[in-house]
């Protein structure tokens, strides 16, 4: 049992990434620049969040009055349900409270709320954080956290990456506005891509596809190169750098409406170094579209379908292009009308219903066309 607990703890630690205050501030500033009243009078829910670990609660607590918030609610998991907290020790705030319960502190999640100036110091901030134990373990899928979700106006958090599909389903069924930290790889999940295609979710304003630094629990397995990169960026110690992180949101920030500056087909073939040596764009063997391997090589004068890399979403302007569908390692090919084609992969023949160029299978393409 001890070895089993250790394995579970190690796996969980490698799924916990705590967002930096500076990154939260930059992203929220983009929404505020577009709409200074975006948070005014709103109830904000921060699930999967604990002020002892996370900067989200701290950020919104310190800006409670500035943003004109109505209510701030955070919930945290019970240590018993998070193996990485097997050595959990209650905080001084919890121990000093007459609500402290040595059993509940392990088995139950906690709820943190700010609504008023409870310490009567003339301002509302982190010192006015009131807390209590939840009835359950704080899982965001529980009935009591779902009830908090339904009462909120905006949901903001950095969920465990391994639960990202479940988390996005949980949010989308609520119809609430949201801001979520995730991996760019999540774009290929059918549940996530559908929201992007239908313009119900888009990438945030900052840090998309670039380096983001996250704090990790002590003992988490971190690649030495990523640890060193984080240290060079000013975060030595228990930090890691993730180069494929991004923000997903349903809150408008305006920056996504900046169109790409593109060249015509002829100019791309003549001047674009990415197209050097090509006489034209490759066409898929089994699907009526051209393949564009680089976003900056999208031809401005092509009116048909185009397959582009998922990194295109970092520059995607919905006023300029329409997203038609996606190929995720061939899994969505039939939905787009791609026919199965025999290809050679690792020396073996196989049938492939994703995009194929010259009998070679391609992976992870988003299919777009010019906006009508």
Structural class: alpha+beta
Tally of DSSP β-strands: 19
Tally of separate helices? 11
State the oligomer: single chain
Query: Approximately how much beta-strand content do the residues carry?
Result: 15-25%
How would you spell out the order of helices and strands?
HEHEHHEHHEEHEHEHEEHEEHEEEEEEEE
Q: Given this structure, which CATH class of the largest domain is correct?
A: Alpha Beta
The separation of the N and C termini measures 60 Å
Instruction: Kindly give the count of domains.
Output: 2
**Strand line-up across the major sheet:** 5-4-3-2-6-7-11-8
> Quick one: overall form?
elongated
Give the helix level as a range of percent.
10-25%
Radius of gyration: 23 Å
CATH architecture of the largest domain: 3-Layer(aba) Sandwich
- State the major sheet: 8 strands, mixed
CATH topology-level fold name of the largest domain: Rossmann fold
Mean pLDDT: 85
Ranges where pLDDT stays below 50 over 5 or more residues in a row are 1-14
